[in-house]
Every structure is written in C-alpha cells, then in structure tokens.
Amino acid sequence: MSAGVTVWFTGLSGAGKTTLCGLVKAGLIAAGARVEVLDGDDVRRHLAPDLGFSREDRMKNIERAAFVARLLSRNGVIVLASFITPYQSMRNYLRQELDPYIEVYVRCSLKECIRRDVKGLYRKALRGEVPRFTGISDEYEEPVNPDVTVDTEQCSKEEGARLILDFLRRRSFI
Ligand SMILES: Nc1ncnc2c1ncn2[C@@H]1O[C@H](COP(=O)(O)OP(=O)(O)OP(=O)(O)O)[C@@H](O)[C@H]1O
Ligand SMILES: [Mg+2]
C-alpha cells in the first residue's frame, strides 16, 4: 500500500483552495493514487451543521475534519483538505495531529479575493451582513511555515497544481 498523506490547503475565501484541490486530485488519479477531497463547505454541511464561526467553533470544525483525514490517510489515501484554517494555532494543531502533513498556503490578496467574490460573500460581508467573515470581520493569520506556497495571482491554476504535484513527487507520495 502506498503511503497516505494529508495535504492541507489554507487561504482566504476565494483564494483558490477548492479549484487547486480539484486539479491536484485529477493529477493524482492520473498517477494511480487513491485520493479523497475534504472540502470545508461539505464538512460544515455534513459533519458540523451545529457549528458557527466563533474561534471555538472554527477549531471544532477543523478537529472533526482532521479526525477524518487521519482515518483516511492511515489507510493509504492522499487526503486533499480545503479549509480556510485562518489561525496559526489551528495549523500548529494539524501539524501535530497529522503525520505526514503537508501545508499548502494558497496565497491571494484580499483585494483580489474581493474582486473574484466567487460566492458573493465578500459583497455581503462588506455591507456588514456576515459576522466574523475571514478577511473582513475576522482575521486570517498568514501561515508561518507552509511547505508549499502557491500564489494564485502570480501563477495559473494549472501551474499551481503542478507545483503541488511536483512537491508530492519529490517527497515520494506519488
Ligand atoms: N491561479 C489560480 N488558481 C486558483 N484559482 C484561480 C486562479 N486564478 C483565478 N482563480 C479563480 O479563483 C476562484 C477561486 O475560488 P475557489 O472556490 O477555488 O476558492 P476557495 O479558496 O475554495 O474559497 P472558499 O474558502 O470560499 O471555499 C475560482 O473562480 C478560480 O477559477
Ligand atoms: Mg472552497
């Protein structure tokens, strides 16, 4: 059985986490790997419908996702986890809990995320209609020690996905 790993994508809403996960997933499947995506939106719907966006609830959401990631990765699955994961304390927790753990910082300026506004949430948040929205009414702490940084304003999504796949190949996960 090939080694599993959790690849954790962190970044602002609209930075490109889900987009990159999809492309990396396709690349991994093409390479014959077993892969599963854990996306923040799905996990909140299915595993954390009781949770809100306070610091404590956000942490619980991450803990539940990490639990699932651990189950999968220890069975040889490459887990692609896409969560804003706004606080450094969360990422410290993940690095401690998950082994192996690869952190991908999906970097994009707040200005560009607001311009993209994929879900229309920035527009609402800027009108004060979304309490504790990351980047507007809640903080996003820049990752201090990501393994890979993908700047989605500087490179295309295909280039970003290739960067991550190359990293996984160098580390012998594929
Ligand atoms: N280089 C790039 N890499 C990734 N996405 C890009 C890039 N350039 C533009 N985009 C666009 O940016 C948007 C990113 O949206 P996406 O849903 O992936 O963000 P997200 O980080 O998953 O946000 P959320 O936290 O709200 O789920 C998409 O519309 C995507 O096409
Ligand atoms: Mg997403």
From TrEMBL:
Pathway: Sulfur metabolism; hydrogen sulfide biosynthesis; sulfite from sulfate: step 2/3. It comes from the Bacteria. Residues 4-151 form the APS kinase domain. It catalyses: adenosine 5'-phosphosulfate + ATP = 3'-phosphoadenylyl sulfate + ADP + H(+). Its EC number is 2.7.1.25. It is an enzyme of class 2 (transferase). Keywords: ATP-binding, Kinase, Nucleotide-binding, Phosphoprotein, Transferase. SUPFAM superfamilies: P-loop containing nucleoside triphosphate hydrolases. GO terms for molecular function: adenylylsulfate kinase activity. ATP binds at residues 11-18. InterPro entries: APS, APS_kinase_dom, P-loop_NTPase, Sulf_AdTrans/APS_kinase. Belongs to the APS kinase family. Catalyzes the synthesis of activated sulfate. This is Adenylyl-sulfate kinase. It comes from Paenibacillus residui.
